[in-house]
Amino acid sequence: MTDIAASQALVANNLPVPGSALGSLDAYIGAVHRIPVLTVDEEQQLARRFRDEEDLAAARELVHSHLRFVVHVARGYNGYGLPLADLIQEGNIGLMKAVKRFDPDHGVRLVSFAVHWIRAEMHEFILKNWRIVKVATTKAQRKLFFNLRKSKKRLGWMNAEEVRLVAQDLNVSEREVLEMESRLSGRDIGFDAPSSDDEDHAPPSPVAFLSTDEEDPSELYEREDEEDSQLTLLREGLSTLDARSRDIVARRWLGQDSKVTLQELADEYGVSAERIRQIEANALKKMRALFTA
């Protein structure tokens, strides 16, 4: 059975979803606290039934009996400014993963085994949603993110001695401590929106400090569209000319190198320069009529 299938089966219950329209968060917390706590023998029997017989009813009972513990763990992360209901739901996913992997023969209670999986899901959710830009990507940064707040003894920036003690306690460098403190002290600012609710008196957003010499996108599009239309008309105009007239116009006006002189073309075609001028004038007149039509 896949993790997805197992998870879908385990959540098939009559409990309200935390924070959903079907039930308030308080109703959910009240419901999970009314579920009896399993004894050691009951937990062992249910775990063996699920492991040996894939009894989903047993797995569901294991999950239900530990939902109150997920709520307890989630409340410990209230300081990160994320909805408690979301943290509980992420923790429930971790609990289901733990139940699927729990081996009753190891001699530990499910709650001790599941706490790692519950916290892991919550940590991942917090790191993904606490800031627009992810604040912790390495193992050391994650350790700092979840421990720096409780390591600080007072509000405000840490002094050099506090930085040294925290770095020593968490086994990271002082530079990493200072960098994470800076990240935790910052906040997200809308790139193209006022940085406060009072738009009239708000300081400029970051986009206001950017300058560019490029054209406005709409004007650039209009100009390029006009150039494409002109180029199409030019091709159509050239296609209406005979081969000699087309060659004369192209070499006199469309060449990338220096313009060919009338005398050079006259020598090539064995006519006078005046005749080349007349052919050129007639061809341009014919093409101009097409452009103005």
Overview of the structural elements:
The chain is mainly α. It contains 14 helices and no strands. It has helices at 3-10, 25-33, 40-53, 56-65, 67-75, 84-101, 110-129, 139-151, 160-170, 174-185, 217-239, 243-253, 262-269, 273-292. The longest helix has 23 residues, at 217-239. It is elongated and about 115 Å long. It starts with a helix and ends with a helix. The model is unreliable at 1-13 (pLDDT under 50).
Write the layout of secondary structure elements.
Layout: H1 3-10, H2 25-33, H3 40-53, H4 56-65, H5 67-75, H6 84-101, H7 110-129, H8 139-151, H9 160-170, H10 174-185, H11 217-239, H12 243-253, H13 262-269, H14 273-292
Helix pairs in contact: 1-6, 3-4, 5-6, 5-7, 6-7, 8-10, 9-10, 11-14, 12-14, 13-14
